[in-house]
Design a protein that fits this description.
Elements lengths: L13 E6 L1 H12 L3 E6 L23 H6 L3 E5 L5 H12 L3 E5 L4 H4 L4 H4 L7 E6 L14 H8 L21 H24 L3 E6 H6 L5 H8 L20 E3 L5 E3 L7 H13 L15 H5 L3 H19 L3 H10 L5 E2 L10 H5 L3 E6 L4 E6 L23 H8 L4 H9 L4
Parallel strand pairs: 1-2, 1-4, 2-3, 4-5, 5-6
Antiparallel strand pairs: 7-8, 8-9, 10-11
Helix pairs in contact: 1-7
Length: 422
């Protein structure tokens, strides 16, 4: 279990999360940075509690590994927002909240009378972030979307794939569309909270997954919009209008390493020349030993591209006589931005990831066991990160939130349960 004795940047921030999968990663980013995130779930539970895989392959409301991953450090309360009592309770919770993460379908919170314009009457300083596939309004607002269709329609699939264009474009795995919009939203929430520190004013953030993806295509979208140029998909490297030399090399142990163009500065170029000389591979470069002209490469200069091609040949030869971790480790020591192509499970046993504390053990006292989770997606020296609690059981925090924080009596809670509000 990761712990931290340092004060956390979001320790005093209270968040309500309502909706389903689109906002779950945003809520987790905030929760793992210390915010108190209360997940509002329908009485039957969040839909993602039914997502496979399940612990020991046995379906159950508290056994979804998908739900476990996306909901660490959160609390869970059940609340039926279609009832008057449920909406009233939500307003009471919102009155003490700093942030509301809303991933309901567009317009749904307005139908419930709980949209930003309505909620500011009880929570005038709240920051409300609404995450939807295409925004709250516009020609596509009512369109349905999945991770696959979002990545395709938003642009990333356009420039992801292999040199062999007989193969179709590639969709990145791991719910990337949801993660992209959640990262943009979490950043926007941070900025809005800083703005509130100086002005005392909350605001509404309309997070559009399609727009977030469209600006996450590096130069692909802009090349098309500005010059009507189409980038080419390339194996293990950035898509480009002018194809570049291969940069994914096969190592002696059967793993691939992405090397990019291995030298990005003159100092790195000299390191690379010395390394190739040590391995008797310098002759692969022939007369192309001068510091590369990166601008000329981007512009497609023939000599620059020939140098790039020869470097690729040399790197292939170097990799062929070296194991992947040995190649990676030496490259890291020389300041090169190289990375091993791993299967997901291999990441947890990699010494580099282990040294950075990426595998995190999380206790599940209800099961009498603990499990290894993916750790921090980033390391911020002044803002500690930790998983201090596994994902909540359904309604696990009802009594604490409703009785201890809102001051409801046992009779009040019993009546709300009987009426179907919680």
């Amino acid at each position: 279990m990761a712990t931290s004795s340092e004060p956390n940047v979001l320790d005093d921030i209270r968040v309500l999360e309502v909706g389903a999968e689109l906002g779950a990663w945003c809520g987790k980013l905030l929760a793992d940075m210390g915010a108190a995130v209360v997940k509002i779930e329908p009485r039957e539970g969040d839909p993602t509690r039914s997502y496979e895989p399940f612990y020991q392959d046995e379906p159950g409301i508290d056994r979804s590994l998908y739900f476990w991953h996306y909901n660490t450090n959160k609390s869970s309360v059940t609340l039926d927002l279609t009832t008057d009592a449920g909406r009233s309770l939500f307003e009471r919770l919102a009155a003490d909240a700093d942030v509301i993460v809303d991933s309901m379908p567009p317009g749904r919170m307005r139908e419930l009378g709980l949209d930003y314009d309505s909620i500011v009457s009880v929570a005038p300083t709240v920051v409300m972030a609404s995450i939807t596939p295409f925004g709250q309004e516009g020609p596509f607002a009512d369109w349905a979307s999945t991770d696959l269709t979002a990545l395709a329609f938003g642009g990333p699939v356009w420039n992801c794939g292999y040199d062999d264009h007989s193969l179709p474009p590639v969709r990145g795995g791991g719910n990337q569309a949801q993660h992209v919009v959640s990262h943009y939203t979490a950043n926007a929430i941070m900025i809005a909270l800083i703005h509130r520190q100086f002005t005392g004013a909350g605001q509404h953030i309309d997070a559009n997954m399609h727009a977030a993806l469209n600006v996450t295509t590096e130069g692909a979208t802009y090349n098309w919009l500005v010059a009507r140029d189409t980038v080419q998909r390339q194996t293990g490297r950035h898509a480009a209008v002018v194809p570049t030399s291969p940069s994914q090399v096969l190592c002696r142990d059967g793993r691939y390493v992405n090397v990019g163009f291995p030298a990005r500065t003159e100092e790195q170029w000299l390191h690379l020349l010395a390394w190739l000389d040590e391995e008797d591979l310098l002759g692969n470069l022939g007369e192309y030993l001068d510091t590369p002209n990166w601008t000329a490469m981007r512009l497609g200069d023939p000599d620059a591209l020939e140098q790039q091609r020869r470097v690729a040949v040399a790197m292939g030869a170097l990799a062929g006589k070296t194991d992947s971790y040995e190649l990676f480790s030496k490259a890291q020591g020389l300041g090169f931005q190289w990375g091993i192509v791993y299967a997901p499970e291999d990441v947890f046993t990699d010494p580099h990831f282990q040294a950075r504390g990426f595998p995190v053990e999380v206790d599940h006292p209800e099961l009498g066991d603990s499990f290894i989770y993916p750790g921090a997606p980033y390391k911020l020296p002044e803002s500690p990160w930790a998983i201090t609690r596994r994902a909540p059981l359904l309604g696990e925090d009802n009594r604490r939130v409703y009785a201890d924080e809102l001051g409801l009596s046992a009779d009040d809670i019993a009546k709300l349960k009987a009426d179907g509000a919680i």
